C-alpha cells in the first residue's frame, strides 16, 4: 500500500509541471494582453508596461523565470489586480467554492443514495420509474438552464430567495446555487446507487445473508449498501475535486466570488500568474483526491488491497 | 411488461412537461402585471445605495484604470480640482473653489479652498495636486489613461521616458522650432516669454498673474524644447531619417525629462497653475477625470501597491473605503472629514460586481439593488421595462460604427466603401434597436450643443449598386427580384466583432442588408474580446470590424482624435495629413464657434474618405428606483455621488426620467 502511494506521488509532480507548461504555452498563444482594453494605449504607455513585466525578453527566459517561481510555490502577484498576491486570491475565493461544493455534494449524496436505494429495492415499481425519470431529467437538464428556471420561480416570482450574490454561509443566498449545482450529481449518484445495489442484491453473499435469517433491514444496510456504494465512492473523488475548486457555470450564474469565477476572469484578463496559480492548485487537488479515492477503495474492498 | 414500462415513462414525461408549463405560466402572469415600476419598490431602511456597477474593478488607485466601473468608484473616493456636474458634466468646483483661464485656454490657475481635508483629517494643499498629477504620469505607475493628461506641457515626454538635448558648451537646450520645418503650429500664449505686451488674462479680483515671475513659470513661458524618444532604437531611427537633426544632436548631452519638468506648479499652498502645450478649451472639464484626482502621498510612499487596502487607504472624496470583496462588492462609507460632508446624502454605497445583464436586472427586480449600470436592460426586455417609470431614457455621448480596413482590396476602393455604407438602412436598424438614433457622422447626434455636425451619405441602395458597378463589380437582378454580385471577391471580406449578444445582432442585421441590397454575402467572424481588440489594432482583419466609442470628455475631439494617429484605436489604416492639420488648426483657434467649424470640416473630410460606416448614437439604458434622487442619466454615466440621496416620501420620488436641463 505504501509503495503504491509513493509511486503515485512520484508521477503526480511531473504531471503538474506538464499541465502548467501547457497552460503557459496556451496563454502565450492567445492574442491580447492583460492591459488591452476597449481603448488602445498610447505606444509609450504600452512600452512602460511591457518593460515592467519583462514581456520583451526572449520566451525561454520568461518561461524559466515563471517555472522557477512556481517550483518554489511562489505564484507571484496578479497582473490585473495590482498588489494582490495569487495565494491571497485563492485563499479568499476557495472557501466560497468549497462551501457551495461540499453542501451540494452532501445534498447529492443524501438524496441520491436514498432515491437510488429505493429504486433498486422496489425495482420496476412506480417509485423506480418516477425516480429514474427524475434522474434522467437531472442529468440531461444543464445547470445553466436549471439555475435560471429556479431563479425565475423562487426569486422573481415568489420573492423568496435572492437571485444572485453571496451573503456568506449560512444565508439564504446559499440555497439556489447548491440546488442547481447538486442536481446533476444527485441524479448521477441515484443511478449509480441503483445499478450497484441491483448487482449486489443478486449476488451470492446476499443470498447467504438472507438464508442466515437476517432481517431485510440488516441485509440492506450492512451488506447490500456497502457493496452497492463502491461505484459512488470512485465517483466521489473527481466529483468532489471539481466541486471544491469551483464550478464555473454556477459561480457565474449566481455571481459567487469563488475560484471558478476567478479562473474564468483571469483567462479573459490574460492574467498569467493567476491562471497558472489556479491551474496548479486545481490539478494538485484533483490528483490528491484521486489518490485518496484509491486508498479509500482499498479499505472498502479488501480484494483491491492485494 | 415492456409496454407497461413505456406507458409509465410516457405518463411521467407528460407530468413533468405539464408541471413546467404550469410554472412558466405562473411566472409569466406575475411579470406581466401592469405595475408603475419594474419589480419591488421599497426604499431601504438606512441611507445606503446598492448600485450594480458592472465588471470587477481592476484597481482602486485612480491613476491606474481607464474603465467606467472604476471611474465611478474613484468618483466616490477621490476628489479633484473640479467635479462633474451631475446633469451636464460641466466642471463644478471641487477642491478648487474657482479658477482662471488665460485668453487662449493654454494656462489654467486653480484656487483651492482652505478647508479641504484628507479622510485622516490632514489638510489638503496645492503640493498634493502637484504630487498626484506627476504620479499619474510617472512611467512606473503605468496609468492606462495618462494620454488624457498629454495636453499638459512635457507630460507626454515625461510619461514616455523621452529626452531633452542639452549643449554642454552653452548649457542651452535645443529648441523644437529650429527643427520643425514649415509645419510649426502657432505658439500658445502659455509659451510666449513673460512680459510681452500681449495680455494673457482678463483682469479678475483674485489676480492669477501674481507670482508670475517664478523660475518654473519662466521655464514654461519659453519656447518648446526639442524632445527625442527615450528608447535608443526609436531615437536612432528618427535621427537617421533627419540628417539636420542628427548633426545638431551629435556631441550633445541627452537629459531625461523629469517629473519636475511637467507643466504643473504649486503657487503658494493654495494655488495650482497648469501650463498646456496647446489651447484646450475643454481642459477644465477634462480635469475632472480620475487621473487628475487627489491621492495621498504619505500613504502611497509608506505602503506601496498596498496603499489601497481598506486598512491603509486615506481618501480625498466624499466617501472612504470600508471594504472590498473581489467579485462581490466594494463598500464605501461617508467621509466625515470631507469639506462638504454636510451636503452628502448617503451613509454608504455598495458597488456590486455583476457583468451579466439578466443577473443584474434580476437583482434590481427583486429589490436587492437600487440602481444599475448603463446598458443593463437587455434588448428583449425593453418592451416590458421601457414603459415603466423607473427606466432612464436619455442620449449618450457614444457612437457605434463599422471600421473598414482600407489597406486591402476590394475595400481600398472608395466607391466600394461608399456602396457598403449606402446599402445599410440605418433608420430601420435603429427602429429595431428601439432606443438608438441613426447616425451618418462620426460624432454622436445631439450631444455637443452648437457643433455644426456634418452629414454623411444616407440610405440609397440604387446608388450603391451603381457605385459597385463603377468599381468593376456589377450587380444584377435575378428574375425573382433578388440581387447578385457575381465577381465581387466576397471571400476577401468578413465582418469581425467581439462576442456579445448585441454585437452579434448588429452584425447579422448588416449582413442581411448587404445580401438584400447588394447581393453580397459577408461572412461573420465572432471573436473573444481581447483577441478581437488585438486583431483590430494590428489591422489583422479583412473588410469590416465593429467599433464602439464612448466619450472620455465632452468635446467632439474625444471622437475625432481617434484618427489623429495611425495606430491605437484608428484600426482602419486610414490616415491623412490634411485631417491632422485641420485638427491642429482647430486646437489653436481661440474663438469657440470657429474652432467647432474647423472640427466639423475635419470630420467631413474624414467622412468623405469613408474609413468608417457610422451606425448609431446609442442611448443610455438603465433603471433606478424612484426613491433614488440626485442620480441623473447624463451622457457619460458618471455620477457625483455626493448629490445622491434616498427619498422616503413617495410624493417626491422621480416618476419618469429626471430632467437633465432644469
Write down the Rg of chain B.
28 Å
Looking at the overall shape, the CATH architecture of chain A is: Orthogonal Bundle
Widest beta sheet: strand line-up of chain B: 18-24-17-23-21-22
Query: Globular, elongated, flat, extended or rod-shaped: what is the shape of chain B?
Result: globular
Structural class of chain B: alpha+beta
Order of helices and strands of chain A: HHHHHHHHHHHHHH
Task: Report the sheet-strand fraction of chain A.
Answer: under 5%
Beta-strand content of chain B: 15-25%
Averaging pLDDT over every residue of chain B, what do you get?
90
Largest sheet of chain B: 6 strands, mixed
The name of the CATH superfamily of the largest domain in chain B reads: Dipeptide-binding Protein, Domain 3
Please provide a brief summary of the model.
Chain A has 306 residues and is an all-alpha fold. Chain A has 14 helices and no strands.
Q: Which helices and strands appear, and what pairs or packs with what?
A:
The complex is a heterodimer of chains A (306) and B (662).
Chain A (H helix, E strand, L loop, with lengths): L1 H28 L13 H10 L6 H13 L14 H36 L4 H15 L2 H15 L17 H27 L2 H8 L4 H13 L1 H15 L3 H6 L5 H11 L2 H29 L1 H4 L1
Helix pairs in contact in A: 1-13, 4-5, 4-7, 4-10, 4-13, 5-7, 6-7, 7-9, 7-10, 8-9, 10-13, 12-13
Chain B lengths: L1 H30 L16 E5 L15 H10 L4 E3 L6 E3 L2 E6 L5 E6 L13 H12 L17 H5 L3 E5 L4 E2 L41 H6 L6 E2 L3 H10 L1 H7 L3 E4 L7 E3 L4 E5 L7 H4 L10 H7 L15 E7 L3 E6 L13 E5 L4 H9 L5 E2 L9 H4 L5 E5 L2 E7 L9 H9 L3 H8 L3 E2 L22 H10 L5 E2 L5 E2 L9 E5 L2 H18 L4 E5 L1 H9 L5 E8 L6 H4 L16 H11 L4 H18 L2 E6 L1 E5 L4 E2 L15 E2 L16
Parallel strand pairs in B: 1-14, 1-15, 21-22, 21-23
Antiparallel strand pairs in B: 2-3, 4-5, 5-11, 6-7, 6-8, 6-9, 10-11, 12-13, 13-14, 16-25, 17-23, 17-24, 18-24, 19-20, 26-27
Amino acid at each position: 500500500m505504501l509503495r503504491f502511494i509513493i509511486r503515485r506521488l512520484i508521477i503526480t509532480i511531473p504531471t503538474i509541471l506538464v499541465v502548467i507548461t501547457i497552460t503557459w504555452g496556451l496563454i502565450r498563444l492567445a492574442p491580447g494582453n492583460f492591459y488591452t482594453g476597449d481603448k488602445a494605449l498610447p505606444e509609450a504607455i504600452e512600452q512602460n508596461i511591457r518593460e515592467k513585466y519583462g514581456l520583451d525578453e526572449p520566451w525561454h527566459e520568461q518561461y524559466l523565470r515563471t517555472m522557477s517561481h512556481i517550483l518554489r510555490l511562489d505564484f507571484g502577484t496578479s497582473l490585473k489586480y495590482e498588489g494582490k498576491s495569487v495565494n491571497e486570491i485563492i485563499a479568499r475565493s476557495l472557501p466560497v467554492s468549497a462551501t457551495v461544493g461540499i453542501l451540494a455534494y452532501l445534498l447529492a449524496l443524501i438524496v441520491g443514495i436514498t432515491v437510488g436505494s429505493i429504486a433498486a429495492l422496489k425495482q420496476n415499481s412506480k417509485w423506480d420509474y418516477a425516480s429514474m425519470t427524475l434522474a434522467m431529467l437531472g442529468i440531461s437538464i444543464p445547470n445553466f438552464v436549471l439555475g435560471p428556471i429556479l431563479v425565475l420561480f423562487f426569486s422573481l416570482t415568489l420573492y423568496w430567495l435572492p437571485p444572485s450574490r453571496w451573503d456568506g454561509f449560512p444565508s439564504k443566498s446559499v440555497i439556489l446555487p447548491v440546488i442547481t449545482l447538486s442536481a446533476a450529481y444527485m441524479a448521477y449518484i441515484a443511478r449509480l446507487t441503483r445499478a450497484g445495489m441491483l448487482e449486489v442484491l443478486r449476488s451470492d453473499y446476499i443470498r447467504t445473508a438472507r438464508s442466515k435469517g437476517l432481517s431485510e433491514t440488516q441485509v440492506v444496510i450492512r451488506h447490500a449498501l456497502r457493496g452497492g456504494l463502491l461505484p459512488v465512492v470512485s465517483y466521489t473523488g473527481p466529483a468532489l475535486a471539481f466541486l471544491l475548486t469551483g464550478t464555473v457555470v454556477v459561480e457565474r450564474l449566481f455571481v459567487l466570488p469563488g475560484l471558478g469565477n476567478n479562473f474564468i476572469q483571469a483567462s479573459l484578463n490574460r492574467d498569467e500568474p493567476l491562471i497558472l496559480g489556479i491551474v496548479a492548485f486545481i490539478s494538485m487537488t484533483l490528483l490528491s483526491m484521486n489518490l485518496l479515492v484509491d486508498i479509500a477503495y482499498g479499505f472498502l474492498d479488501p480484494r483491491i488491497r492485494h | 411488461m415492456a409496454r407497461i414500462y413505456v406507458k409509465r415513462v410516457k405518463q411521467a414525461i407528460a407530468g413533468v412537461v405539464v408541471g413546467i408549463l404550469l410554472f412558466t405560466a405562473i411566472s409569466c402572469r406575475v411579470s406581466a402585471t401592469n405595475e408603475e415600476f419594474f419589480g419591488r419598490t421599497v426604499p431601504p431602511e438606512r441611507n445606503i445605495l446598492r448600485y450594480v456597477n458592472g465588471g470587477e474593478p481592476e484597481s482602486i488607485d485612480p491613476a491606474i484604470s481607464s474603465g467606467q466601473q472604476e471611474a465611478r468608484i474613484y468618483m466616490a473616493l477621490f476628489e479633484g480640482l473640479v467635479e462633474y456636474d451631475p446633469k451636464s458634466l460641466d466642471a463644478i468646483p471641487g477642491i478648487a473653489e474657482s479658477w482662471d483661464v488665460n485668453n487662449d485656454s493654454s494656462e489654467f490657475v486653480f484656487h483651492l479652498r482652505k478647508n479641504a481635508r484628507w479622510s485622516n483629517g490632514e489638510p489638503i494643499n496645492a503640493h498634493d495636486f502637484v504630487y498626484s498629477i506627476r504620479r499619474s504620469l510617472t512611467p512606473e505607475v503605468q496609468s492606462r489613461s495618462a494620454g488624457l493628461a498629454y495636453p499638459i506641457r512635457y507630460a507626454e515626454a515625461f510619461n514616455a521616458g523621452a529626452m531633452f538635448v542639452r549643449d554642454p558648451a552653452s548649457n542651452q537646450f535645443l529648441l523644437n522650432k529650429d527643427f520643425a520645418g514649415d509645419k510649426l503650429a502657432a505658439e500658445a500664449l502659455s509659451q510666449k516669454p513673460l512680459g510681452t505686451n500681449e495680455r494673457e488674462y482678463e483682469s479678475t479680483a483674485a489676480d492669477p498673474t501674481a507670482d508670475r515671475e517664478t523660475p518654473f513659470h519662466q521655464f514654461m513661458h519659453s519656447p518648446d524644447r526639442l524632445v527625442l524618444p527615450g528608447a535608443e532604437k526609436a531615437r536612432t531611427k528618427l535621427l537617421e531619417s533627419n540628417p539636420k537633426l542628427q548633426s545638431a544632436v551629435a556631441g550633445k548631452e541627452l537629459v531625461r525629462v523629469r517629473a519636475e519638468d511637467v507643466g504643473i506648479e504649486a503657487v503658494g499652498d493654495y494655488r495650482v497653475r497648469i501650463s498646456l502645450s496647446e489651447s484646450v478649451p475643454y481642459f477644465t472639464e477634462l480635469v475632472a477625470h480620475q487621473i487628475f484626482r487627489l491621492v495621498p502621498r504619505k500613504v502611497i510612499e509608506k505602503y506601496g501597491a498596498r496603499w489601497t487596502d481598506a486598512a491603509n487607504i486615506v481618501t480625498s472624496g466624499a466617501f472612504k473605503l470600508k471594504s472590498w470583496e473581489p467579485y462581490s462588492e466594494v463598500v464605501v462609507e461617508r467621509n466625515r472629514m470631507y469639506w462638504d460632508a454636510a451636503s452628502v446624502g448617503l451613509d454608504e454605497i455598495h458597488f456590486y460586481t455583476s457583468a451579466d445583464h439578466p443577473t443584474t436586472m434580476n437583482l434590481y427586480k427583486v429589490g436587492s439593488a437600487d440602481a444599475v449600470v448603463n446598458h443593463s436592460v437587455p434588448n428583449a426586455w425593453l418592451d416590458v421595462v421601457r414603459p415603466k417609470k423607473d427606466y432612464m431614457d436619455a442620449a449618450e455621448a457614444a457612437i457605434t460604427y463599422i471600421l473598414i480596413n482600407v489597406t486591402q482590396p476590394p475595400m481600398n476602393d472608395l466607391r466600394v466603401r461608399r456602396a457598403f455604407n449606402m446599402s445599410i438602412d440605418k433608420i430601420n436598424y435603429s427602429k429595431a434597436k428601439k432606443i438608438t438614433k441613426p447616425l451618418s457622422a462620426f460624432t454622436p447626434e445631439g450631444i455637443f450643443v452648437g457643433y455644426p455636425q456634418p452629414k454623411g451619405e444616407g440610405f440609397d441602395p440604387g446608388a450603391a449598386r451603381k457605385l459597385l458597378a463603377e468599381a468593376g463589380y456589377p450587380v444584377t437582378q435575378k428574375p425573382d427580384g433578388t440581387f447578385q454580385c457575381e465577381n465581387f471577391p466576397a471571400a476577401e471580406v468578413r465582418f469581425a466583432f467581439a462576442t456579445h449578444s448585441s454585437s452579434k445582432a448588429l452584425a447579422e442585421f448588416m449582413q442581411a442588408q448587404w445580401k438584400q441590397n447588394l447581393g453580397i454575402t459577408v461572412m461573420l467572424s465572432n471573436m473573444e474580446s481581447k483577441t478581437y481588440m488585438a486583431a483590430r489594432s494590428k489591422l489583422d482583419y479583412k473588410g469590416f470590424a465593429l467599433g464602439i466609442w464612448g466619450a472620455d470628455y465632452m468635446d467632439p475631439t474625444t471622437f475625432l482624435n481617434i484618427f489623429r494617429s495611425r495606430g491605437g484605436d484608428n484600426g482602419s489604416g486610414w490616415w491623412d495629413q490634411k485631417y491632422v492639420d485641420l485638427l491642429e488648426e482647430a486646437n489653436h483657434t481661440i474663438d469657440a464657434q470657429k474652432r467647432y467649424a474647423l472640427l466639423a470640416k475635419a470630420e467631413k473630410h474624414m467622412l468623405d474618405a469613408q474609413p468608417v460606416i457610422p451606425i448609431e448614437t446609442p442611448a443610455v439604458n438603465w433603471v433606478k428606483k424612484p426613491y433614488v434622487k440626485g442620480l441623473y442619466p447624463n451622457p457619460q454615466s458618471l455620477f457625483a455621488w455626493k448629490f445622491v440621496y434616498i427619498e422616503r416620501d413617495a410624493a417626491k420620488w422621480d416618476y419618469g426620467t429626471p430632467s437633465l436641463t432644469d
